[in-house]
Amino acid sequence: MAIYDNIKAACRAMALSGCVIASSVLAGCSGGHGDTPLPRKFPVPEVPSIISSGEDAIEYLAMHYWDGYTDTSAVYPCDSTMVNGVTEEDLEQAFANWTAILRKAVPGQAARAVSTMFDRISGVEKKDTSSTVFETVSELAYKYFYDPNSPVRSEDLYLPFVSRMATYGGFTPEQRMRYEYDARMCSLNRTGTPAADFTFSDGQGRMHTLYSLDAEYTLLFFSNPGCEACKYIIGRLESDPVLGSLVSSGRLAVANIYIDEDLISWHEYLKEYPDGWYNGYDPSFTIRTDLLYNVRAIPSLYLLDRDKTILLKDAPENRVFAALHEIARQK
């Protein structure tokens, strides 16, 4: 392998000049026999025995998850099958496991952990620009946190990452501008902040505002006529007796909003929507044109409390359904 050969050559040159090479680095270079290094397991950190509470253990794992993997005191191969000595498959599984840990951490801790991860992978990049750690982990961050089709997507987790990308010196100004835009979009309607208000029209031409909906909770549902994923969500909300009871009791208002321009199709499809919902469209297209919401894909779901504070932002439907079931249990 080229990287392995380059490291061996560098080691020989340093030895000739009287430098001492750490044995751990030499071991990291080879990883196996001959010129075929063997992959290593992703080094998951161990929680110190002094940490006794589950919450503290989650915080420790979230913050220190990438320490061993990005330790630059040893050198591991990066090629078409391995990234810093770990196979791409194992690295992605490790990222998925870390995402699950972040879900259990409090939001502030999770955001700090993401920023710390960025520091770790960018540190590897600065030490060795031939490494693929920064590129690969950045792609995983987008795939898991920001891809509209990700079942664990979270703009709250992607924001601290993309904000650092927007100021990273290793990018061109044009690249940083793209990340700056994504950071601005992720900053819209953040979890724990008041949702942006807007006006919408129902099928009879009556005007409503989001904040005029009087309910303990509001499910803001951006949908399109005939959208298959939207049909699935509608079916779940109608067929699940627990979710249906939240709507029929008035505890949950569903604002089913169309934000595109084909109003003929929307009016034709209107009869397919449940009568007990607030089914409407944005007559002035302000949601899209004024960027009130970062609706990157349809459907998109937001869960709001009575004050229209955002509890869940563009969350996968299963997380929304689970949250609504939990609300139903809290009678």
From TrEMBL:
- Keywords, in A-Z order: Signal
Signal peptide region: 1-27
Pfam families, per the entry? DUF5106
Q: Where is the Thioredoxin domain?
A: 189-331
Write down the Gene3D superfamilies for this protein, in alphabetical order.
Answer: Glutaredoxin (3.40.30.10)
State whether keyword Signal applies. yes
- Keyword Heme assigned to the entry: answer is no
Q: What is this protein called?
A: DUF5106 domain-containing protein
